[in-house]
Amino acid sequence: MSKRISDEAAAKAMEEIRSGPSSFHHGDSLPYIHKVGAPPKQNLLTEIKHAVKETFFPDNPFGHLKDQPGKRKLFLGLQTVFPIFDWARGYNLSKFKGDLVSGLTIASLCIPQDIAYAKLANLDPKYGLYTSFVAPLVYAFMGSSRDIAIGPVAVVSLLLGSMLTDEISNYKTHDYVRLAFTATFFAGITQMALGLLRLGFLIDFLSHAAIVGFMAGAAITIALQQLKGLLGISTFTKKTDIVSVMRSVWTNVHHGWNWETIVIGVAFLAFLLITKYLAKKNKKLFWLSAIAPLTSVILSTFFVYITRADKKGVSIVKKIDKGVNPASASEIFFSGKYLGAGVRIGVVAGMIALTEAIAIGRTFAAMKDYQLDGNKEMVAMGTMNIIGSLTSCYVATGSFSRSAVNFMAGCQTAVSNIVMSIVVLLTLLFLTPLFKYTPNAVLASIIIAAVVNLVDIDAAVLLWKVDKFDFIACMGAFFGVIFKNVEIGLLIAVAISFAKILLQVTRPRTAVLGRLPGTTVYRNIQQYPNATQVSGMLIIRVDSAIYFSNSNYIKDRILRWVTDENEQRKEGIQYLIVEMAPVTDIDTSGIHAFEYLHKSLQKREIQLVLANPGPVVMEKLHASNLANKIGEDKIFLSVADAVATFAPQAEP
Amino acid sequence: MSKRISDEAAAKAMEEIRSGPSSFHHGDSLPYIHKVGAPPKQNLLTEIKHAVKETFFPDNPFGHLKDQPGKRKLFLGLQTVFPIFDWARGYNLSKFKGDLVSGLTIASLCIPQDIAYAKLANLDPKYGLYTSFVAPLVYAFMGSSRDIAIGPVAVVSLLLGSMLTDEISNYKTHDYVRLAFTATFFAGITQMALGLLRLGFLIDFLSHAAIVGFMAGAAITIALQQLKGLLGISTFTKKTDIVSVMRSVWTNVHHGWNWETIVIGVAFLAFLLITKYLAKKNKKLFWLSAIAPLTSVILSTFFVYITRADKKGVSIVKKIDKGVNPASASEIFFSGKYLGAGVRIGVVAGMIALTEAIAIGRTFAAMKDYQLDGNKEMVAMGTMNIIGSLTSCYVATGSFSRSAVNFMAGCQTAVSNIVMSIVVLLTLLFLTPLFKYTPNAVLASIIIAAVVNLVDIDAAVLLWKVDKFDFIACMGAFFGVIFKNVEIGLLIAVAISFAKILLQVTRPRTAVLGRLPGTTVYRNIQQYPNATQVSGMLIIRVDSAIYFSNSNYIKDRILRWVTDENEQRKEGIQYLIVEMAPVTDIDTSGIHAFEYLHKSLQKREIQLVLANPGPVVMEKLHASNLANKIGEDKIFLSVADAVATFAPQAEP
Question: What percent of chain B has pLDDT over 70?
């Protein structure tokens, strides 16, 4: 039984452990009151070293390099930068089988998606394929996730398209493509810089809730954009908000819609959604949804070629250039009027791409239980996009849908990305002419089918159930995206996330504690209505570290509790006990707030008593001499001890 | 004795209190394991109402209006806006005696300071006097502090002068004065808006540490600026950094210094510092330091008038216009190119002025134990500066030095400000010509003597002792101000303060716990080296609420602890116990992080056990179904209970 040891034994052990004024007698009913000792002072250098380490290197990235001979250190360092040297040695045929199958599967999925997503970014379809060739190769050497599938993704393509068009509205000009490469280059620089400077934690400031809302909004925006292709509308708004798009759709209803296009589009959309539904119902059928897009493309292309439906107004892809990625280093704007825009778009797109990639990486790392080094991933992503921008790629990242297929198809390592990359290369070299008659309506269907999964209603419901504030952040981002545009949605998401942090650090909780009947356990009286307050005493728990941002609030809140309770109670209050257990740290502003509190209470003839301060707080109470001002005999190991000392008559 | 009740009784009482799966038997050595129940669900509306109230109305400003009849409500509401209606009814002759004496004392102090500070802002001396006439009157009606002395202050004057000169470098133009009024107007608007929108907590983001550094830097900058007047240098740099100023001083050493000026300046500086020193040694002599500035002005003016030292190069004030404040509403730039600058300068100056006023107000409120409503103070300050800007005043706020004198001279209410205001009015009406021969060197001495107190070395030492990070913030602000300028210093201070908040919310502490020998108390093994770990178990305490900003860090950090300890221990780890006592809240990102943690641990065949989650956390664990995934039987009231259940052989 956990509590069967005697209190005396416990007390004795505590005495041995702690320094400082130890035992203190108060009447004969109190043989032992344990004192809270201050911990030994730490060396300043150690302290700083420790703080820097925990802040920037919590994952201890070079831990395994320690105590190794020079040559081995070099090799291990190389492994740290290029994880492929680590896992390649243990690579074998059975692993390759898994990677081959999954690589081929994601390749069949990515080729039609690449063509479609490039159009979302207002780029030629070939750039989507280029991106799916170079980026996965680079990632395979540097990335530490084994399951992520790299390439262009819908949300980043949309964001890029939207931001690029804001700068250069005519996306058919060569400058538009050049700006896309410029943005990709700076997206890579941003990602790499975040990783190298160990600032990876910055992406954590975009909360999960905000991402859920942003992704759902982006998915709906993307789907709405596809109405153009799906309904065969030729004059369509350039805006992305739901009002403009729906107006565009309805004004075209009588003469702008093309029924042949609609038949093709809706038929294949139904096919794609049904295979998706089947795959969801039965996990073993996942391959069905994986090959459905390519099947749709082949069937619809063949159908259009046979019927020459393109002559009846069904718009087709027309021409995709043959051949591998041309070099594009000279295309990037390193100066001139578009440099600023390129940097800005690159930073935003790079951060969003990173957020998506890290979220995917974490999900699968947790499923297979391996560690994913966020900062290392960022460096890998950054390198990938920098090299991409020099070889005619646009921003690549991890794709939710393809990564899931990759995982389910049994991928073992990043070799599946290499397999996919080779398939894309072969496509670029030999197969692109075959896409000439592919109807755009099928590409629209493929996009819609791909993004429906981004609308995660279950996640939104969970947000509502668990945390209302998270739900507001989610809805804010969602409505921002669908009623305005992706940038505004993103801005709202970040703003709400920051507001939450501000609230967290300025308005911590405080609670009045009462004793649970017949025990010495003190709990929040609002949660436990039958907890009773001790006569003449007010016990308050502060539920946060006390810093400059909340110290005044905490002081004022405590004084208000005192005033309110003092009015309500006939006998008044003689002791204020502050339960400090959750107060993990206190800074000088916090110390000052307690000094003010102490002074105010003195005027009211109320004693300030502290219960259970942690080691850091205790150290600072001593350093600032506040412990002396309050009185060492007013600092107790627990609320129960303090009550026993000052209100022995209240003993249960 | 606090712990003498039996465990059985405690357990029984707990059973009654809690709902949920209650008792649970595990072997015969464990008759009672208390379960942590989830609290009853709160009504959503109540929850939101409560959150809004705690965030924006923690001081319950209209609490006293509740349950009052209509007419009385109106009167009480009026009292809330104009506290003078509250305290005026209890006002009596004895209080007036105190206010009269203190009002006269601060008037004698403020007149020379006003003239000197106006010059710091590059304004005509009369504007300093104007400001000391209108602002204190307005404050007396609306302010809730009884001790604060209102008027122009050194730091805000310097800041204003520096920022205004950046916009209009020739401060002799009329536009310069107009911009000063514009900035004052928007400073008032800013202050009022902060108060009305209940955003007063924003000024708490400038930490105490940053203010200490900023004030000390500003004081030294101000003192250095006075070398111009004190040494009688005619061509002086316009920059405020220490390097430029010292260069200016040394290049003028051979022909630029005026020895008559130096004699006057240094003599009176010595006089002022000595009286200050005496007053500090003996509190009863405070009046000595209070009247010393006016005495210096009178003596030096008389001396210059007699000796006509102004003809020997001693620079004098020359002329101060007679008469009360002219209206200046038409002078404010409500449009045109200076509007933007006016708003920007106003916002910065308004915030700094507010910070100073609130800090003073809080200090004296704590000394006399009355409540100071921060938001109400801001509305008062804002109104005061808006009215001021319409009546030829510049930014006014509470002065550290004069408020202290006011307090020591025995002020009772804001009437002392009214007395001071009347004296200033009389001066404006009749006495300004007398200042014609006042040497600028004496004004320089008065400023230097006034600002030396802003360099608070004791506070800096305390910062160093208590919190190294605070010390860095302090030094950053200090060096920023003296080596660059006040705006840069301010920026550094705010940036470091924010960095600290970011650190706080992204890198919370975690600790490995061990059992103190012979007890069931679990403490940090780094603080208590003889605490022992339980075989096969790792016990970790998370010292923060778990939010999106830190959830990934916490998860990764815990997994790293597990990996490290698993390698070190022969017997490995079978149970990970997470002590949740300091985790006051968790959001959806936190829930997800724990799901990942749970999955990762499952792969490693380690059981995840939670100890002592708080009510909010418990509610969210249930709402998200995570409690079920982990298993209700893995959630314990305390670490001791969890250890007793899973490692009964480890019992002490």
Answer: 91
| Dist. CA A354–CA A379, nearest whole Å | 10
Interface of B with A in 595-614 (CB under 8 A): 595-597, 599-600, 603-604, 614
Distance of alpha carbon A604 from alpha carbon A258, whole angstroms: 82
Residues of B in contact with A640 (CB under 8 A): 2-3
Q: Which residue of B has its CA nearest to A55?
A: B507
Q: From CA A594, how far away is CA A596, in angstroms rounded?
A: 5
* A200 lies in the same domain as A246: yes
Helices (H), A370-467: 374-390, 400-408, 415-426, 440-451, 457-466
What is the 3 state secondary structure string of B202-259? HHHHCCHHHHHHHHHHHHHHHHHHCHHHHHCCCCCCCCCCHHHHHHHHHHCCCCCCCH
Confidence of residue A308 (pLDDT cuts 50, 70, 90): confident
Q: Which of B508, B518, B623 sits opposite A13 (nearest CB)?
A: B518
Rounded (10°) CA dihedral A163, A167, A171, A175: -120
Whether residues B321 and B374 fall in one domain: yes
Question: In angstroms, how far is CA B596 from the centroid of its own chain?
Answer: 40
Neighbouring CB atoms inside 10 A of A571's CB total 9
Distance from CA of A578 to the nearest CA of B (A): 15
- Record the pTM: 0.74
What's the domain count of chain A? 3
Q: At what angle do helices B457-466 and A588-603 cross, to 10 degrees?
A: 110
**Interface predicted TM-score (ipTM):** 0.76
Closest by Cβ to A465, choosing from B366, B597, B624: B624
A649 reaches B (C-beta below 8 A): no
Nearest CA in chain B to A370: B600
**Lowest-confidence pick of A481-485, B93-97, B489-493:** B489-493
Q: Is the pLDDT of residue A394 over 90?
A: yes
Domain containing A426: what range?
A: 86-502
pLDDT at position A475: 92
Does A511 lie in the same domain as A467? no
Cβ atoms A121, A177 nearer than 8 A: no
CB B64 within 8 A of CB B76: yes
- Domain shared by A228 and A361, yes or no: yes
Give tens-digit pLDDT for B567-606.
Answer: 888 888 999 999 887 788 888 889 988 998 998 898 889 9
The C-alpha atoms of residue B291 and residue A563 are separated, in whole angstroms, by 40
**Residue A63 and residue A163 in one domain:** no
Comparing CA positions, the residue from B357, B413, B359, B362 lying closest to residue B383 is B357
Shared domain for A433 and A547, answered yes or no, is no
